[in-house]
C-alpha cells in the first residue's frame, strides 16, 4: 500500500490549482517571484516571462480555468471509490501526466531561444521567409505566434510540477488497484453467500 493515498494527492493537486487561481487573479507577481520558478528556469536556461506585474484579462481567464479544474477534481473525489479509482482517475492520471510531459518538452525544446535549436535557428535566421510546397511564402518564426509564448520558465515550472504530481498519482493508483479489486471481490462473495 502506498504511503500517501491517491485521494490525498489529488486533493493536494486540486488545492494547488485553486491557490494558483487565487494568485493569478489577485497577485500574479507572487507566482512569478517563486524561488522554484527561478531555479528551474535558470537551470534549464529558459527565459523569464513578462506580463505578471499586474492582473490582466488573460490571467483572469487562466484563474477561472484553474479554479474550475480544481473544483471539478475535488467534486470528482466524492464518487464511489471503485468507480473513481479504477475508471475515472485510472484514465485521467496517465492522460494528464502525458499532456504535462508534452508541454514540458515543448516549452523546453521549441522556442526561438531554445538551447537545443538555438544554433540551428541562428544559421537559418538570415532568411526570414521560406516557400511552402505550393510556392507561397510563409514566415518561419512569427513573433506574434501564441506558441512562441509557451517557451517560458513559468509554464515549464508549472507543467514540471504537474507532470511529477500526476505520475505520482498514476503510480499510487496502480498500487491501490489490487486492494480495491480484492475488496470488491470479497464483497461480491459475501453478497452471493447471503442469497
Automatic annotation (TrEMBL):
This is Predicted protein. It comes from Hypocrea jecorina (strain QM6a) (Trichoderma reesei). Residues 116-140 are annotated as: Disordered. The keyword Transmembrane applies. Pfam families: Ilm1. The keyword Transmembrane applies. Keywords: Membrane, Transmembrane, Transmembrane helix. The chain crosses the membrane at residues 7-26, 86-108. Residues 116-129 have a biased composition (Low complexity).
Amino acid at each position: 500500500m502506498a504511503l500517501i493515498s491517491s485521494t490525498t494527492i489529488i486533493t493536494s493537486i486540486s488545492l494547488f490549482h485553486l491557490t494558483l487561481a487565487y494568485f493569478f487573479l489577485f497577485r500574479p507577481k507572487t507566482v512569478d517571484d517563486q524561488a522554484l520558478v527561478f531555479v528551474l528556469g535558470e537551470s534549464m536556461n529558459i527565459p523569464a516571462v513578462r506580463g505578471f506585474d499586474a492582473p490582466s484579462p488573460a490571467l483572469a481567464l487562466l484563474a477561472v480555468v484553474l479554479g474550475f479544474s480544481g473544483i471539478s477534481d475535488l467534486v470528482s473525489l466524492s464518487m464511489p471509490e471503485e468507480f473513481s479509482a479504477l475508471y475515472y482517475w485510472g484514465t485521467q492520471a496517465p492522460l494528464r501526466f502525458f499532456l504535462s510531459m508534452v508541454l514540458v518538452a515543448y516549452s523546453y525544446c521549441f522556442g526561438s531561444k531554445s538551447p537545443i535549436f538555438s544554433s540551428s535557428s541562428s544559421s537559418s535566421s538570415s532568411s526570414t521567409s521560406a516557400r511552402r510546397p505550393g510556392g507561397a511564402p510563409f514566415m518561419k518564426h512569427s513573433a506574434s505566434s501564441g506558441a512562441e509564448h509557451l517557451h517560458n520558465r513559468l509554464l515549464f515550472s508549472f507543467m514540471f510540477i504537474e507532470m511529477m504530481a500526476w505520475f505520482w498519482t498514476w503510480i499510487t493508483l496502480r498500487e491501490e488497484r489490487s486492494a480495491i479489486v480484492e475488496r470488491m471481490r470479497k464483497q461480491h462473495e459475501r453478497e452471493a453467500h447471503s442469497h
